[in-house]
Amino acid sequence: MYKGIAASRGIGIGSICVIVEHELKYEAVKVADTEAEKKRFLDAVEVFKAETSAMAEDIRKRIGPKEAEILEGHLVMISDPTMAGEMGKMIDAGQCAESAVEAVCDMFIGMFSKMDDDMMRQRASDISDIKVSLLKLLLGIKDIDISKVEPGTVLVAKDLTPSMTSQINKDNVVGIITEVGGKTSHSAILARALEIPAVLSVPDVTTLVKDKDTAVVDGTEGIIYINPEGDVLSKYIIKREDFIRKQSELKSFLGKPTVTADGTELELFCNIGTPKDAKKAMECDGEGVGLFRSEFLFMDSNHLPTEDEQFSAYKEAAVTMQGKTVIIRTLDIGGDKDIPYLNMKKEENPFLGYRAVRYCLGNRDTYMLQLRAIVRASAFGKVKIMVPLVTCVDEIRAVKEMVAEIKKDFDANGIEYDKSIEVGCMIETPSASLIADILAKEADFFSIGTNDLTQYTMSVDRGNADVAYLYSTFQPSVLRSIKNIIECGRKAGIPVGMCGEAAADPLMIPLLISFGLTEFSVNPVLVLTARCIISKWSKQEADELAAKVMALDTEKEIAALLKQEAKE
Ligand code: PEP
Ligand code: MG
């Protein structure tokens, strides 16, 4: 049995497929037979072209023509006589094909990445993709096609990037195990969205297992078994059935309002990453979107999305939600989220660096595009703007000034928008929590981001397994912070929601009811579980429990009490 971080609930039992990361290593030898080397190179280019056009065709059919454009661009680039010609010349001069590919690509990457134009800078990341593909072909490295793994597969990888996760076919993958990543890492969030049990941060797991080993993934407890004994396997088969049965019982909460046991109605919203997820939010009976992580639009694109591209994504979410609230969080990059074409500087301490609203205010033109797109989308639904990582009041004031400027421009040009569009802020830093009373005078609403609030309050990297034992919203400091934020919001008469993962934690829910939280924003698949738990607690019961909890000194005592008092 191995322990890791419980990242996505449920029990998965299946056969392991290890996703190996290959190093693109080669010896840069001088070649004598340059003709043979040139043929090896040209053969690789032909295979690259054939594979790329097949993939482009597949994407065109499955997803759409716009998405296929990236790969078609790669085909145009590699067919351009300049790039392949330069590589050929180097091979003629005795370089091996690998070093010719690497040198020429690096030269173009260096050239394009220095350009001012975004489209040109994007070329740098396209060429980087071409380089990796050509090197893999020359070195005979074959990647596993994650979208085509056998049914009943448990994926094991060092890390699961968002692009790998997006290839996962939910019908075939029954579990995920990784060596790195925390509960709030984006791969964890995506695993939850796909409803695939996942255990992350299992030390050295890729070397502990091999293909076809049997694995039990207990994503609820954060435990895995490799080739378990018969009795363990039978126990987990029963547990899996039990989990599935409970999930289906939750269906009785579909279409019901979210109310506490004593009849107070609360809002139960969803966290989404793409406009398509809004559909999922509706299917799962979400009452709105409490967090649209807009950075996924930027991460899934190979160029800075234009105002129109962003507008159509935000509009799609607003229209899909049919008049229900859609809170769009403005670009939250930096920290663990990099966007290659933005060429952000590598930082010593990225979580304390040029992140989120700091980056946006420093890159006004980029931010202006996004804010304009969101304000335009407000004509199509109940759209709100949410600013991430606020630490001081100047930041929210600066964003509001930009929004006011946009409104003036739209008024002058007859562009429609919601004149009462709200601007709220995420409270996810200790600083914002400590000045929540000041921020409440400027913000139209608060949403507590417990993923970051816990990280910054406890000074623990949210993805670092070595300090994960400290990363808990049940720490007295984090609970005091949450309580204070809600009280400040209530005193100022603004709504306070929570979009961090803690909003869906069954043990946390009674405390949030007691503190006075009015909006819970959770992963769509957790809507019914959260609605069920909320329905079990009256304010008085929640208050009694909260009083006992807030009198305790340690996280362990608090977690134990909450577990003991939990209502199944
Ligand atoms: C949070 O920090 O709680 C949050 C919701 O934002 P993210 O997880 O995207 O940083
Ligand atoms: Mg955050």
Explain what this protein looks like in three dimensions.
With 568 residues, this protein is α/β, with parallel strands linked by helices. The chain is built from 23 helices and 16 strands. It has helices spanning 34-62, 65-79, 81-92, 97-113, 118-139, 162-167, 186-194, 205-208, 230-249, 275-283, 295-299, 307-320, 356-362, 364-377, 393-413, 430-434, 436-442, 450-458, 476-492, 509-515, 527-536, 539-550, 555-565, and strands at 2-3, 5-8, 11-19, 153-157, 173-178, 198-200, 214-218, 223-226, 267-272, 289-293, 325-329, 382-387, 423-427, 446-448, 496-498, 519-522. The protein has an 8-stranded mixed β-sheet with strand order 1-8-7-3-4-5-6-2. An 8-stranded parallel barrel has the order 9-10-11-12-13-14-15-16, surrounded by 7 helices. Strand 7 (214-218) and strand 8 (223-226) form a beta hairpin. Helix 20 (509-515) packs across helix 22 (539-550). The longest helix has 29 residues, at 34-62. It is globular and about 85 Å long. The model has no long low-confidence stretch (mean pLDDT 91). The structure holds phosphoenolpyruvate and magnesium ion (MG). Magnesium ion is lined by residues 388, 428, 449, 451-452.
